[in-house]
Amino acid sequence: MNSTNRAANRLLIFVCGLLLLVVGAAAAAAVLVPFVRDAWKDTSGQVTDQVAGWLEQTQLAGIGVSWLLIAVVALLVIAIVVLIVFISRQGRGHTGIALTDPTSEHGSTVIESSVAEHALKDALDAHSEFVGSHVSTYKVRRTPVLKVSVTCRRGVSPKDAAAIVESKLHALDELLGRELPALIQISGGFRARVTKTTRLQ
């Protein structure tokens, strides 16, 4: 949950990873594979001459610089800007405020996210059905939303685990006097497989 589109995140990571993989594989092959190394030695001079010819033919009048170099530099600048924006947006979406009451004649009430997160986590950690839990707060469409992640022990039904989490959320809503939207994530994983089995009565 952050402020960037998941598909865009994965596409950018895939493209960058693919480019690095291709460049790395080509460099390794040019050094380690005799056939590729010999072929590169034979063609490197021709490639250099060809590139020099392109640069010579595409020089801009009065500048003496090829527009191909300008285009490459522009593409690199755009790529750097895109990566900076991508990096700066990672992790955003977290909010430190869980609840804000409108300002009245007596002032306003602000409840920090840590209050709701700690209260809910302490309540969930008291249940032996869970190996662990994590609670965080995000802002979705300008509305604080709790993300509750729990890791169940072996033998615990996801339906029963969800019922426990929902009961704690309802108790938190009663405590705060207002219902907070929440996303519940239930998982098992390695920690669940290596712990003893617990069955609900």
N-to-C series of helices and strands: HHHEEHEEHEH
The total of helices stands at 6
Structural class of the helices, strands and pairings?
alpha+beta
Mean pLDDT: 81
For the largest sheet, list the strands in their spatial order: 3-4-5
Q: What oligomeric state best describes the polypeptide chains here?
A: single chain
Tell me the total number of β-strands. 5
Largest sheet: 3 strands, mixed
> Which fold name is given in CATH as the topology of the largest domain?
Alpha-Beta Plaits
Runs in which pLDDT lies below 50 for 5 or more consecutive residues are 194-201
| Cα separation of the termini | 35 Å
Q: Compute the CA-based radius of gyration.
A: 28 Å
Descriptive report:
The chain is an alpha+beta fold. It has two domains: 6-88, no CATH class; 97-194, Alpha-Beta Plaits. It has six helices and five strands, in the order H-H-H-E-E-H-E-E-H-E-H. The chain is elongated.
Helix and strand topology:
Elements: H1 6-32, H2 34-57, H3 67-89, E1 97-100, E2 110-112, H4 113-125, E3 130-140, E4 143-152, H5 158-176, E5 182-187, H6 189-193
Helix pairs in contact: 1-2, 4-5
Provide keyphrases for this structure.
single chain; 201 residues; alpha+beta; Alpha-Beta Plaits; 2 domains; 3-stranded mixed β-sheet; two-stranded antiparallel sheet; 5 strands; 55% helix; elongated; disordered C terminus
